[in-house]
Structure formats: structure tokens, C-alpha cells
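Message: A physicist's question: would you kindly supply an amino acid chain plus C-alpha cells?
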Amino acid sequence: MRQLGFFWGVAGVVLFLSTAIMRLSPRILELQDYTFGWQHWLLLALFVPWMGWAEGYKGFHKAFSPRVVARANYLRDNVPVILRVLAPLFCMGYIHATRKRKIVSYCITLGIIGLVMLVRMMPQPWRGIIDPGVVLGLSLGIVSVLYWFFKALTGRWYHPIPLDLPEPRETVRVGSQGQSEV
């Protein structure tokens, strides 16, 4: 049962990110119907790599993904069953987190929703040019979550990351045997 929360937390986050990719992909395919000018190519050439770096590497790989896996690893401990059932929400910091972590998680989510609404108002091909960068960032996010997950699963992960739990237990380190050390 302890492993179930660990796996469900990571799988739920990956499914959430995958759903966003699936919703954005048709917009990218619509670009085939448009002729690009130099300004379209320039934005595409600058925005996609920038999103890979900013969202994929800085956002996901350096912050979000290791925290998701560390919080999922925490679910292997003796925690209430409700946290295991709601593992994806727990891993993303929406529940059972410090006030600051909840505020950050909800503010980032609201900011993303706001940006999505703004981008939806943009005409094609501009909207379709933004979407490949977002899909790249989300795809790198999935790869990053899986990277940290497999490192934790095999016990080769040592990444001190604040869990931002409401209790004093703040940091988890996964040692060579895959056991939590605090």
C-alpha cells in the first residue's frame, strides 16, 4: 500500500501533464494551413528553445520534478491513507503543504490558466507558434519527472529538496538503498 501512493503520485502528475500536451497538439497541426512570414519563423525559432530552457529545465527539472518525486517518496512513510488517495494533488503541493507552498502552487496554476486564456484569444498562426514551445516544456517536464522517479526507484538519487510539509520534517534525501533519510 505504501508503494501505491508513490507510484500513483508520480503517475497522476505525468497523466496531468500528458493531458495538456494532447489538448495542445491539434493547434500545432493547424499550422500546416498557414504560410509563415519571417516574423513567424523568428518567433518560433526563439520561443521554442526558450520554453525548453525556462519551462522544461528551470521550471520542471530544477524545481517541480524533484519536489514531486520527493513528496511521492514521502508517501512511502506512515502517512494517512487520504494522502495516498490524493497523491497527485499532494505531490504538486496543493494539499498537506506549508502555507507558502500552497500559495505558490495555486498562484502558478492561476497564472498558467490566465496565460492559456490569453493565448486562446490569439489568432492563428500566432497561437500555433506559442503552443510548440509549451508542448516542448511540458514534454521535458514529463521526462524530468520520470528521470527523478527512476533515480528514486533505483535508489541512485540524492537530491535534498524541501518537501514543504506543514510538519517540522522538511527535507528528504533518498540514499543508496532507496530509503528516506531525514
Q: What stands out?
A: Residues 2-181 form one domain.
